[in-house]
Amino acid sequence: xxxxxxxxxxxxxxxxxxxxxxxxxxxxxxxxxxxxxxxxxxxxxxxxxxxxxxxxxxxxxxxxxxxxxxxxxxxxxxxxxxxxxxxxxxxxxxxxxxxxxxxxxxxxxxxxxxxxxxxxxxxxxxxxxxxxxxxxxxxxxxxxxxxxxxxxxxxxxxxxxxxxxxxxxxxxxxxxxxxxxxxxxxxxxxxxxxxxxxxxxxxxxxxxxxxxxxxxxxxxxxxxxxxxxxxxxxxxxxxxxxxxxxxxxxxxxxxxxxxxxxxxxxxxxxxxxxxxxxxxxxxxxxxxxxxxxxxxxxxxxxxxxxxxxxxxxxxxxxxxxx
Length: 322
Ligand code: A3P
Description:
Elements: H1 34-48, H2 54-59, E1 63-64, E2 69-73, H3 79-86, E3 92-94, H4 105-109, H5 112-117, E4 121-122, E5 127-131, H6 141-148, E6 153-158, H7 161-178, H8 186-190, H9 203-207, H10 210-217, E7 226-230, H11 231-236, H12 238-248, E8 260-263, E9 268-272, E10 278-279, H13 294-315
Parallel strand pairs: 2-5, 2-6, 3-5, 6-7
Antiparallel strand pairs: 1-4, 8-9, 9-10
Bound molecules: adenosine-3'-5'-diphosphate.
Residues 75-81, 133, 167, 234-235, 268-269, 281, 285-287 line the site of adenosine-3'-5'-diphosphate (A3P).
Protein name: Sulfotransferase
EC number: 2.8.2.-
Domain Sulfotransferase: 67-311
């Protein structure tokens, strides 16, 4: 059934234009036991702070690698939490910043070596992961990523679409307030004032039409190369979601309940790396949302419903969204 969904793909029109990874030697098989890696991560941490020497890089054969997996979105889906939690895995190294290589024309023009230089140092058999949620909705990105590595693994974390749209609005609202600017209420933006129908021109609404964006990606990548993460469950009960990602990335299961603890003050799960080092996400993650008129919520939920059904069908992952 999945194959039949590729109806708009004309076979043979999308040939890899010399994928960059194919010009590189194949990745080395895993040699260092994971426990050793965990120990050596201390070194990687020092490196990121600029405390490791070139000599250490040479000695430990550390390299800056292009990502083998990318969290492509969705904005406000829980992309930061997912990246930070995956980084608990000893074989994963995260690019801390959003690089915006594929969605920003200026960055893209700087070339793939610029992108690689933005990546953290890692052991050759570790996998580097970056996240830039704008990738999911930006027209040019699927083709550009495909040209870099046609077999890359793509992670998409989604939340119930109306909640995600409100979260998106809340982030923008906070930015406006910080600059002492006024902003419309969510209801005014989400509905077209003339028709009282859902305003599909509003970006926060458009971004939540997941299937529309995914269909563009499917012109380049088969559905098997995507893994959908349930962002609502990542908030409530992260471990099972992380275990599914470990399996998708062909990694041994290493993230455990020990690494995740619920912080009642924060109201979210936080991360425990070891006995001395733990951290919660920044306060900008987990904002209080404004109350939204229930009739507008219902209108949005009804609007998203058919798109959600299509999204379930394509991805094979079903959610209890209204
Ligand atoms: P809210 O601010 O709406 O609650 P992103 O990183 O893609 O911007 O997503 C932000 C969302 O991540 C937050 O949305 C929050 O709900 C969610 N999230 C998931 N797990 C979290 C965690 N452990 N700590 C903080 N926020 C988390």
